[in-house]
């Protein structure tokens, strides 16, 4: 998921389907949820009463997507990966400790814990991202740009990677000499290889 922004979902989804059609072409299913507070649902979050309400609803939305996939006989719902791109990478980093049906995580661009200082969180908010990162133990692939001005590599990205509870052999951080955007061909190569490794190759 991309995590938000304006624009109707049919237009945005068309763009993302072109960008991520490599997943479909590989024989896998691609689900693109329209989360609470994003796209045409952006108006739903205008009157949020609690700061963490949006995140809570997004996590519930994600679980409902899996609930639906489990009703379909043409999907293998035992092999589910969560892929977050750009700001969606932040949202996706909250999912593994909560949604146990996710077996693999791929986070691409704009990924890192902003509230880390000397390896420790600077806030005590129970919904702080770091509280979820340290409880993530599934295979995680992180793709980041070395010169991303939003989430500097050494300040937020590398500390987040180190804090993942995933076995070191099952987590991978790839840093590119780019800014916020990851080279497309490299993203395709790394993503498909990661899915094949941990979910098994697709029987076409």
- Proportion in β-strands: 5-15%
Q: Name the helicity range.
A: 25-40%
Outline: globular
The poorly predicted ranges are: 1-5
Query: How many strands?
Result: 6
Structural class: alpha/beta
User: How many alpha or pi helices?
Assistant: 7
Specify the biggest β-sheet: 4 strands, parallel
The spatial strand order of the largest sheet comes to 1-2-5-6
Give the N-terminus to C-terminus distance in angstroms: 25 Å
The mean pLDDT is 82
Question: Could you give the order of the helices and strands?
Answer: HHHEHEEEHEHEH
The whole-angstrom Rg is 16 Å
Topology:
Layout: H1 9-19, H2 21-25, H3 53-69, E1 80-85, H4 87-92, E2 102-108, E3 116-117, E4 120-121, H5 129-133, E5 140-145, H6 153-163, E6 171-176, H7 184-199
Parallel strand pairs: 1-2, 2-5, 5-6
Antiparallel strand pairs: 3-4
Structure description:
The protein is α/β, with parallel strands linked by helices. It has helices at residues 9-19, 21-25, 53-69, 87-92, 129-133, 153-163, 184-199, and strands at residues 80-85, 102-108, 116-117, 120-121, 140-145, 171-176. The protein is globular, with a radius of gyration of 16 Å. It is built from seven helices and six strands, in the order H-H-H-E-H-E-E-E-H-E-H-E-H. Mean pLDDT is 82; it is low at 1-5. Helix 6 links the parallel strand 5 (140-145) and strand 6 (171-176). It is 35% helix and 14% strand. The two termini are 25 Å apart. The chain has a four-stranded parallel sheet, with helices on both faces.
